[in-house]
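Q: Could you fold this chain for me?
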Amino acid sequence: MRITETIIYLIIGINVLTFFVYGVDKWNAIQGRWRISEAMLLMLAVIGGSIGALLGMRIWHHKTMHKKFKYGLPAILLAQIALLSLTSCRTKKELVISEPIKTEPIKHKPIQEHSPNIFLGYNEHRTSIFT
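A: Sure. Below is the predicted structure, expressed as structure tokens.
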């Protein structure tokens, strides 16, 4: 069995468990018995049972008025979908390093000798260019 199949089975299992835990908590609430803590119900959603938690809320009509469940569970589900899409994106491109480009060395033109007189304001005939 591949690791992806194992992960899928674990996610399905935690969602089924979470769904039934919400049902048991609703049943216990009706009977006036010991209840499952809200922290445990939310933790089951965080570790992968968010779909089961949302279905449990709908089917059992449980925790539907609590804001942390009404808005928190969809937020947890969206975060899980975003995390899943970021980690399992199959369109990632591998970095391919090609061979180095071979180039010819740059050939510089030889530097021409300049008469220092050009910089002093004289032309080739030794007359001033300023007059």
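A (continued): The two ends are 97 Å apart (CA to CA).
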